[in-house]
Design brief:
The complex is a heterodimer.
Chain A lengths: L6 H14 L2 H14 L3 H14 L6 E9 L7 H10 L2 E10 L2 H6 L4 H5 L3 E5 L2 H4 L12 H25 L3 E5 L20 H17 L4 E4 L1 H8 L1 H4 L2 H7 L8 H16 L5 E4 L10 H8 L8 H16 L3 E6 L3 H10 L12 E4 L4 H12 L6 E4 L3 H10 L4 E3 L8 H7 L10 H22 L3 H8 L2 E6 L5 H10 L3 E2 L7 H9 L3 E10 L2 E14 L2 E9 L8 H15 L4 E6 L11 H4 L3 E5 L4 E6 L12 E4 L2
Parallel strand pairs in A: 1-2, 1-3, 3-4, 4-5, 6-7, 6-9, 7-8, 9-10, 11-19, 15-16
Antiparallel strand pairs in A: 11-13, 12-15, 13-14, 14-15, 16-18, 17-18
Helix pairs in contact in A: 1-2, 1-3, 2-3, 2-4, 3-4, 4-13, 8-9, 14-16, 15-19, 22-23
Chain B lengths: L1 H5 L20 H15 L5 H6 L3 H14 L3
The chains are: A alpha/beta, B mainly alpha.
Chain lengths: 626, 72
């Protein structure tokens, strides 16, 4: 049961833990303090304590340079505190006022000596485009257009210069349009008013940024709009200290920078694990049933639909979704797949853990199943006790705090910087689909009435051919690298295979497998030689890719049949155990071979070809090549 | 607060601590102090009031008088 820490107690506790040398615990409490009381006052405390911890924790080091035309210093402490909370040890270099052009162009500038990982260019419209702000009313339209063009070209030249000296990421604040245009309402009526021209510069900025690798535009205007232009600015602070951002918006500015810094530093989440009851829908499915849970286009279900839309958007960025819920599987799956208000269905989830077990353990299993580290997971649960339990057991998981009101969930998830991506590939957008398909395949295997149905479903074809020039190299390679399904583990070179092939009485076969999912290529080899009326299997191996679907039976059946056709009365083979070939140990007995000899090296098995045959699997299509 | 901002242990800060006696109390930290005070006490400090903050003692007196002046 987590204790209620109030911030004052947390500060003393952090210092006590630091004095005791309890680094991990101190770090967790410090992050908790920042979460509960983010702001300029706490930032100083967090910063000074984080500085004592940084060398002892596995933080990602990141160097940020800020080039600017206004005061940004007060944004840095909250920025460093946020960075600490996301596992980043941020070192910041601030350029001098309005020296950004020299900083970019001069190869020996302090900017390049600092060798940043990323650079923020935070310049006000008034400073980079004075003609378009204070002097706009004096400009004829053509002169105004040229001024805009000069500004855009300026950016283009600085970016080109920058790229000649550094491959660091560059994050450029877009220009703000004036809140009160020079010419009043008529300004908004044309593309060449102040607003129109600044919009044009911003779209040029986006074009220029897009033509370079690692150059990004930060939508400063969008940020200001979200918080409200009237409240974003502080005229008094501007006049006093050249700080155009009001005190309560310093943290939002820092957080906007974090939306770039987190993906740049790699501390992103690859998957989001979500709870079900009161997280994806209102209510508890086990108690309220399908008709009682709230999920749909109207209040209160609408809030949960908004969250589901946010999750869908995350999955379109390549972020995997998973479920971890304490519920009866059937109840939960029914709601997930059948409730008409759901926007998400079970196919949207790459992993599902619905049981009554401990969530931390389930989350560990989800990470393993998805083949990612727990430090790449984020967790969303309405229940603060579950959140604390996961935080305590898995401090590397990004646990998202949500308030009581579900209407706020979607925005909080969308604001979380661990979900930001700076590029999207086509593969990202299909990633969830690939996982869902794989789960379906695995599910299909479980849902088939019998294994035979599954084998039939696979529509396998086995192409069996004697060794040829085309398959010689691959056959030799398979003898050299196959360890698991390999009965005798004899290694042959191409020359040796070629020599064997020329000897009378020696038969070398390759098996190539195709199924409904594609062509697996040559995946198996059998080498047998006839001696005194019996066929001895010298080598029998298969790539583990095709084990367990009767392909091994197909290969054995084929060589047995060929042996019988050649007049052999028996087929025999050794099983020589190694540390790795346990998967092949029961192969012969499973096919009704009898044990005839056992010694220190292994066991010898025999099959009477005059009285029995090894049945070729009915669901595999045999193709022979001569 | 001053201890955190100026990186000095709290027991070394007195009413007479000022930009002259605390090395880290430069104009940037002064601004940070103003912002932290405004945030913590929910008030706005005017340029004139900020001028008055010449030492820790002055600052404390200023905050106190503002808190008393505006009943909350």
């Amino acid at each position: 049961m987590p204790q209620e820490h109030n911030p004052a107690n947390l500060r003393t506790e952090v210092d006590r833990l630091l004095a005791e040398g309890a680094i991990e615990a101190a770090s967790r409490r410090l992050a908790e303090l920042w979460r509960r009381e983010p702001g300029s006052a706490t930032a100083a405390f967090v910063g000074s304590r984080a500085d004592q911890l940084r060398d002892k924790l596995p933080l990602t080091k990141f160097k940020l340079a800020i080039l600017r035309s206004f005061t940004v210093e007060p944004i840095v402490p909250p920025l460093r505190a946020e960075a600490f909370a996301y596992g980043i040890d941020l070192e910041v270099h601030i350029g001098d006022f309005n020296t950004y052009v020299q900083d970019f162009v001069d190869a020996k500038s302090s900017l390049y000596r600092f060798a940043p990982n990323a650079v923020v260019l935070a310049v006000r419209t008034e400073d980079v485009a004075p003609e378009l702000t204070h002097q706009f009313a004096d400009l004829a339209p053509e002169a105004a257009r040229q001024a805009a063009h000069r500004v855009a070209s300026g950016y283009e030249q600085w970016i080109n210069s920058f790229r000649q000296h550094s491959q660091a990421a560059l994050i450029i604040h877009s220009l703000e349009r004036p809140a009160r245009p020079s010419l009043g309402v008529v300004d908004g009526q044309s593309e060449t008013g102040q607003s129109g021209l600044i919009r044009h510069i911003n779209s040029e900025l986006r074009r220029i940024a897009g033509s370079h690798r690692g150059v990004y535009v930060l939508d400063y205007e969008g940020l200001v709009a979200r918080y409200g232009s009237e409240h974003w600015h502080d005229e008094r602070k501007w006049l006093m200290a050249r700080l155009p951002i009001s005190a309560e918006n310093l943290l939002p500015m820092a957080r906007e920078w974090m939306r770039f810094l987190v993906p740049l530093s790699g501390r992103t989440a690859k998957a989001l694990v979500v709870d079900l009851d009161n997280t994806l829908w209102g209510g508890i499915i086990g108690e309220d049933g399908m008709t009682g849970i709230k999920i749909g286009p109207e209040h209160p279900g609408a809030a949960f639909q908004a969250l589901q839309r946010a999750l869908l958007d995350l999955s379109r960025r390549g972020i995997l979704l998973a479920i971890c819920s304490k519920n009866n599987l059937d109840d939960a799956m029914e709601a997930l797949d059948k409730h008409p208000g759901m926007l998400l269905r079970s196919t949207h989830f790459a992993a599902v853990r619905i049981n009554w077990g401990d969530k931390s353990q389930n989350i560990r299993e989800i990470a393993q199943e998805l083949n990612i580290g727990t430090d790449s997971l984020a967790f969303l649960d309405d229940n603060p006790f579950e959140r604390e339990q996961v935080r305590a057991a898995l401090p590397e998981v990004t646990v998202i705090d949500v308030p009581q009101n579900p209407a706020e969930y979607a925005a909080i998830v969308r604001d979380c910087p661990v979900f930001e991506r700076l590029t999207l590939s086509a593969e990202d957008q299909q990633r969830t689909a690939m996982y869902a398909e794989q789960r379906q395949r695995a599910d299909a295997e479980h849902s088939f009435q019998s294994k035979e149905d599954f084998f039939r479903f696979l529509e396998q074809e086995a192409e069996l051919s004697p060794v040829s020039d085309l398959t010689l190299a691959r056959i030799a390679q398979l003898t050299q690298k196959t360890n698991q399904f390999n009965l005798t583990t004899r290694r042959y070179s191409e020359a040796q295979i070629a020599e064997m092939a020329n000897q009378p009485g020696w038969n070398i076969f390759s098996i190539r497998v195709r199924d409904r999912f594609g062509d697996h290529g040559v995946v198996g080899v059998a080498i047998a030689h006839d001696q005194g009326g019996q066929c001895e299997v010298d080598t029998f191996l298969l790539s583990c890719r095709v084990i367990g679907r009767t392909v091994e039976t197909a290969l054995l059946a084929h060589i047995a049949k060929c042996a019988a056709e050649r007049g052999c009365r028996r087929i025999v083979g050794w099983f020589l155990p190694t540390r790795k070939n346990a998967p092949a140990r029961d192969f012969y007995p499973q096919h009704q071979f009898e044990l005839v000899e056992q010694n220190a090296n292994g066991s010898l098995w025999a099959f009477d070809l005059t009285r029995q045959e090894v049945a070729f699997p009915k669901w595999v299509k045999l193709i022979t090549v001569n | 607060m001053a201890s955190d901002l100026f990186g000095v242990p709290a027991d070394r800060i007195t009413a007479t601590s000022s930009p002259e006696t605390l090395e880290n109390w430069d104009s940037v930290q002064h601004l940070n102090l103003v912002l932290a005070l405004e945030e913590k006490f929910g008030m706005q400090l005017s340029p004139e009031e900020i001028e008055q903050m010449k030492s820790i003692g002055d600052t404390a007196k200023l905050i106190e008088s503002k808190l008393q002046a505006t009943p909350r």
